[in-house]
Structures are given as C-alpha cells and as structure tokens.
Amino acid sequence: MNFRYPVFLDVAEKRCLVTGEGPEIPVKVRMLVERGAEVVYVHPTADSAIERLAREGRITWYAREFQAGDLDGCFLVISAGPYNSKIFKLAERCNVLCNAADDPDYCRFSFGSVVERGNLRIAVSTNGAAPALAVRLREKLEKDIGAEYGLFTEMLGELRAEIAATIPDFGKRRELWYRLVDSEALALIRQGRPEEARRLLRKLVDESRARAGE
Length: 214
Fold this sequence. Notes:
By secondary structure, the chain is of the alpha/beta class. The protein folds into three domains: 15-110, 3-Layer(aba) Sandwich (Rossmann fold); 112-145, Sirohaem synthase, central domain (Double Stranded RNA Binding Domain, 2-Layer Sandwich), CATH 3.30.160; 148-213.
C-alpha cells in the first residue's frame, strides 16, 4: 500500500461504477453524484438513500450482481464486497481506477478525510496507517477553518483571470497573490464585513496593476 501521491479528480460527466454494500457506499454514491459524475450502482439490493437517487433519475441502478462488462467505459470503480479482488484485477486490465472499501490491497487510490469550505478542500491521509487520526485531524481543521474561508476563496477566484491578464510578470503576480492572501480581508469576512473585504482586495489589485503599468 502506497497512497502517497495526493490528487484531486474531476469526475464530472465521467461514468463511475459503485458495487457492493456497507455504511460507506451511500456516502460514496452521493459524493459522486454531487460532483457531477454519471453514477452506475450494481447490487441486488440498495440502501434507501441509493434507492431514492435511482427513483429521482440521478443514478442508474442495476439490481443484480456485478458483471465484468459493467466496467466498460468507466473512469473509476468503488467496490465493497466479496468480489473486491476480482474487480480490482479487472479494473487494472481496463485501466480503471479502483477503490475497495476497507480492503487496501485492492485499491489503486484511497479517500482522504476531507474538510470542505466552498472551493477550498483539505484532505488528510495517513496512508492507511491510522484512519482514526485522519478523522481527528479533520475534526480539528473543521473547527479552525470556518465558512469564511469558502467566501474568501470565492472572492480570490473572481480575481484570478483579471490578475493573469493584466499583470504578465510572474514574480509580480506571485507577490500580489501573497499580499491578497495575507491581507485583512479574511478577518473582515469573519467579522461579517464581506463588502469591506471585497473593497480591500480590489484596492490591492488596482495598486499592483498600476505599478505593473509603470
């Protein structure tokens, strides 16, 4: 097991297969749906949450056992059951990313313990050594990193294209980004003063653009 290369995946409009059952499966299905994946669930029975998603037409559910052809056209597969080994080997041949719940020997990737604040995502992994520690660290981060970080990230994202287009020098852009991130804008958002935060960020950008024009 060597889950040491961190990566965030874009699964939007990608065919993602989930098969098996267990407490983690409804969570994984919902996460894929929320991120725009084309989700196919294969299992004779389904948790009520998965049934509801199928009724709403948000996923496709085949109420039967897994078949090798189910991997055709898939981007990734999540498995939880007695067929983990078989599914992993098939997935490897088909170049499909595979995760077997609580079965790291049959995983090509692992899920971190994640904190989400809008577009800001922080994932914690212990490479399978101590999942409980990852959970505790996530809980600590959830306390320390509040909703204000989500809005701050959104504000910074709104400026990204403008900064790239108007400040061509990489060094000056980098200097500006750190000025924005280290400014009082985050504190202003935390105090319930988001418009003041926007004005401060705008002022810093305008000042940098003026200097770049000189």
